[in-house]
Amino acid sequence: MMWHWGTCPSLLLRISGCFRFRHTNMAPAVPLLAVRGSAGTSLLRGPPQCEQLSAFTREGVSRCVTFSRDGTLFGCCSGNSVSVIKSLDASSVLTLDLPKTSLLEFSPLNNVLVSWQPYSKSQDSTQGEANLQLWDLQSGQLIKALYQKKVTSWCPSWSEDEKICVRSVNNELHFYENNDFNSIANKLHMQKVSDFALSPGGQPSKVAVYVPGSKGAPSFVRLYQYPVLGGPTAALANKSFFKADRVSMLWNKKASAVLVTASTEVDKTGASYYGEQTLHYLAVNGETAVVQLPKNGPIYDVAWSPTSTEFCVVFGFMPAKATVFNLKCDPVFDFGTGPRNAAYYSPQGHILVLAGFGNLRGQMEVWDMKKYKQVSKPQAPDATHFSWCPDGEHIVTATCSPRLRVSNGYKIWHYTGSLLHKVDVATGSELWEVLWQPFPDGSFPERAVKYQAAPSELGTTQALPTQAYRPPALRHLPATPSSKLHEEEPPQNMRPGVSGEKNLSKSALKNQKKREAKKAAKQQESKSEPPPDPVPVTNSQPEPSSGDPETDKKIKNLKKKLKAIEELKEQQASGRLLQKNQLEKMQKEQQLLDELDELNIGE
Fold first, then answer.
1. By C-alpha distance, which of 206, 183, 218 is closest to 257?
2. Quick one: CA dihedral 88, 90, 96, 100, positive or negative?
3. Span 468-497, pLDDT tens digits
4. How far lies 124's CA from each of 99, 121, 129, in Å?
5. For the stretch 240-255, what's the b/e string if a residue is b when 16 or more beta carbons lie within 10 angstroms of its beta carbon?
6. What is the widest separation between alpha-carbon atoms in the chain?
7. pTM of the entire predicted model
8. 520 pairs with which residues across the strands?
9. What is the band of 408 on the pLDDT scale with cuts at 50, 70, 90?
């Protein structure tokens, strides 16, 4: 989930309790970091100093903490009550007697506080309690109590202007308008809507809906613009596909397109432990496409750039590939292969971090997205969490429980690889969550990317180049070339025959070739002298004949295929990613040459 904060970014650390702010006349000039864990909850004044706020005190164990999207409010549940305070001066806004609350969320304009507690039944009420509650933040009155048994998709989705709110109920979507939850303004019902995603931003609002396939029928995702709902003819775009047990739908920031990752639980071919994944693109103008990924294996991560003009995909068996695509789903830049399974754009979109967390070693590759040039390569071993600070300059990595119950702690970095702050949780304690204070878009302008490491007393943890293992008996001998277990590819701007810091997109490369060809033709024309007499020019030379029309036809087809293979080789040399069927076509070159030899026709 994306967050936006109001005045200045902060990171909230939850360690074991709900906390209260003491009144202060000074607003933090840098983001706050909140840390929550078994020892309490702490607030730090963000990078680079990372000093703990003395105005903050801890009160018992915090079940949950959250910021409002603009950062002006902070809410927490201590296990006894839910409290909401102003982030600027810690003055109380609202206190509710809700001891069972496990999750909290603010509506985009801070008009509604949403609380959720686990669903339960009692002897007095077989239907159970209405466990999803909507509260008016101004008056503290209950607006509506609803039933929400599953924790997945527990919170209703609002448009940023709060004119529309939508939630899924019994395989259909219920739409409310202007926070009036006493009447359903509109419904979307077709077969079984199992998932949806409301577009970001204000009006007109769009919604992406997913309907799983059944009885041999394909699954599909459709885009609608509110309030025109229902039926294929009303859809802005429609994409159907097989092999989908579940999907994840990701809108870009401008609400112009959605990326849909379709997944199956099991790969029936047995090739992947992760099942099968495919990536689909749907735009509100009706365009749809399957994003062609040139390496087999799982899709680990998909991330939109905040500019909404490109997206990054991390995919393929390890070492995984990472590629940036444009809105035509054409590859723009290939980062080669590496130990990575996640991609994170900075809030401004000018930096991209490719990282390998979880069962990987925590290597991070920091890239300048203007030049497609690597800035740094720090390492955060055992990290289970990564997030950008809203300033676009700093990041936090953390090792949290229950994902990993040992070596809990967090680190704050500068993107140039410098480690600015490090905290290891005491033995016997656990770290549960770290959270940056969100900010509104535009609060921190984009700054020029630096390549020199920022000053730091803790230094850097740049990844060292790895060497292949050699048995002790062979280490005194000179190294000899050997076959590698895994295929390794450098980034496309570091491959032989490819120059320039930033490679051109498919269309730009095509236009460049046209200009170069036109220029070369003009130069050739100026150098050549006109012939004394006009000579008829024929477009093609007569093909040699074998005397057998059927054989000549076979020869012509073979030469046509070989010519196509030569063109594919040129495209591959220029850095273009080829599709699977194109690569298979190239592998047949020798077979075609042998067939020509059998026909006794030389090249």
1. 206
2. positive
3. 445 566 555 665 544 444 567 878 777 665
4. 20, 8, 10
5. ebebbeebebebbbeb
6. 109
7. 0.74
8. none
9. very high
CA distance 42 to 79: 17
- Mean pLDDT for the stretch of residues 311-327: 94
Which residue from 160, 393, 353 is spatially nearest to 254, judged by alpha carbons? 160
**CA proximity to 10, closest of 32, 28, 30:** 32
CA–CA dist 233, 224 (Å, integer): 10
> pLDDT band at 333, cuts 50/70/90?
very high
Strands (E), 284-380: 288-290, 299-304, 310-315, 320-326, 331-338, 342-345, 351-355, 364-368, 373-376
Residue 29, CB-side half-sphere exposure with 13 Å CA sphere? 2
Q: Are 527 and 520 in contact (CB under 8 A)?
A: no
- The answer to whether residues 16 and 60 touch, using CB atoms and an 8 Å cutoff, is yes
Per-residue pLDDT of 538-595, as tens digits, reads: 444 455 666 677 777 888 888 888 888 888 887 777 667 777 777 778 878 878 887 7
Q: Write phi, then psi, for 376 (nearest 5 degrees).
A: -155, 170
- The tens digit of pLDDT for each residue in 516-542 reads 676 666 666 655 555 454 444 444 445
Q: Give the SS3 label for residue 428.
A: coil
Whether residue 144 has pLDDT greater than 70: yes
* Of 291 and 476, the one with more pLDDT: 291
Spatial distance between the Cα atoms of 119 and 251, rounded to a whole number of angstroms: 30
Q: What is the average pLDDT score of the chain?
A: 80
Residues 368-376, mean pLDDT to the nearest whole number: 92
Residues 424 and 406: their CA atoms lie apart, in Å, by 10
Burial class (CB in 10 A: 0-12, 13-18, 19+), 204: middle
Distances (CA, A) of 15 to 38, 401, 521, 564: 5, 11, 71, 63
Handedness of CA 127, 131, 132, 136 (dihedral sign): positive
- Beta strands in 356-509, from DSSP E residues, in sequence order: 364-368, 373-376, 385-388, 394-399, 409-414, 419-424, 431-436
Q: Do residues 89 and 24 make contact, with C-beta atoms less than 8 angstroms apart?
A: yes
CA-to-CA dists, residue 345 to 311, 313, 435, 535, angstroms: 9, 12, 17, 61
| Residue 369: C-alpha distances to residues 291, 320, 324, 336 (Å) | 21, 19, 10, 15
The mean pLDDT of 269-288, rounded to a whole number, is 81
Structure tokens at 368: 């300048």
pLDDT at 132: 92
Q: Are 33 and 10 in contact (CB under 8 A)?
A: yes
User: 35 and 12 in contact (C-beta within 8 Å)?
Assistant: yes
Number of Cβ within 10 Å of residue 519's Cβ equals 10
pLDDT(53) > 60 = yes
Distance (Å, rounded) from C-alpha 587 to C-alpha 357? 36
Q: How many helices (H) does the chain have, and how many strands (E)?
A: 4, 39
